[in-house]
């Protein structure tokens, strides 16, 4: 039996769509951890003091258009980690593939290619196949699905932040809200569970003429206050 739309979500989906509220990010840690990546440093320097989903989406797409994969990825992670101070260090782990000595370790040579391949897969084959790739053949050490779905989202939201083809984010906040308010329990690391998640968002969105990522954004807003 299809999962009913939770009343709190149904109420929110009847209201006009609203862009995400901007938040203040802390550049110092990002500049410190990206010390050896000049293109990333330039991208960070160009970001305003307050960022939101729409602004970061455009920056990520601009960087991708110029072939600057690492700058695009770090930009997505600035939004993904929000005001959590440990974000820059954890992204450095992903880039280098190590925890100990990550600050001085070099970026792994295969990281840009795997991130670029993920962009190609999600754009050509859709959200589920993008997830499958990043969870398997394109797996990057220390990059869990809660954050690689953020990368997939920004890489695939081509027409607008609400693009019907974009990969919706599935992180702990969305997972926990669905579990608590809809009785939808997901293993966020499994491709078939991501497919189920996408199916749920699609069904719920169809009732309110919303795309899956619009439904995800409303859930994220209800769960986090950021949207």
Structure, described:
The chain has 227 residues and is mostly helical. It has one domain. It is 60% helix and 2% strand. It contains twelve helices and two strands, in the order H-E-H-H-E-H-H-H-H-H-H-H-H-H. Strands 1-2 form a two-stranded antiparallel ribbon. Helix 4 runs antiparallel to helix 5. The model has no long low-confidence stretch (mean pLDDT 96).
Give the helix level as a range of percent.
Answer: 55-70%
The average pLDDT score comes to: 96
Strand content: under 5%
Instruction: Tell me the distance between the termini.
Output: 29 Å
| Order of strands across the main sheet | 1-2
Got a strand count?
2
Largest beta sheet, briefly? 2 strands, antiparallel
Structural class: mainly alpha
Spans of at least 5 consecutive residues with low confidence: none
Radius of gyration, whole Å: 17 Å
> How many H/I helical runs?
12
Shape: globular
């Amino acid at each position: 039996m299809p999962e009913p739309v939770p009343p709190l979500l149904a109420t929110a989906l009847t209201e006009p769509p609203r862009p995400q509220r901007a938040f203040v990010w802390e550049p110092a840690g990002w500049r410190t951890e990206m010390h050896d990546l000049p293109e990333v440093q330039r991208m960070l320097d160009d970001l305003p003091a307050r960022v939101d989903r729409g602004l970061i989406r455009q920056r990520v797409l601009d960087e991708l258009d110029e072939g600057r994969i690492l700058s695009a990825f770090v930009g997505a992670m600035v939004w993904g980690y929000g005001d959590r101070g440990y974000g820059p260090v954890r992204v450095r782990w992903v880039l280098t593939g190590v925890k100990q000595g990550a600050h001085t370790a070099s970026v792994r040579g295969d990281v840009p290619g795997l991130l670029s391949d993920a962009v190609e897969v999600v754009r050509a084959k859709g959200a589920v196949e993008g997830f499958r790739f990043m969870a398997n053949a394109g797996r990057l050490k220390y990059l869990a699905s809660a954050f690689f779905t953020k990368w997939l989202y920004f890489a695939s939201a081509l027409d607008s932040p609400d693009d019907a083809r974009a990969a919706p984010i599935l992180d702990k906040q969305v997972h926990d809200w669905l579990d608590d308010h809809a009785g939808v329990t997901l293993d966020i690391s499994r491709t078939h569970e991501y497919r189920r998640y996408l199916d749920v968002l699609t069904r719920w969105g169809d009732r309110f003429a919303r795309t899956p990522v619009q439904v995800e954004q409303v859930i994220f807003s209800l769960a986090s206050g950021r949207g």
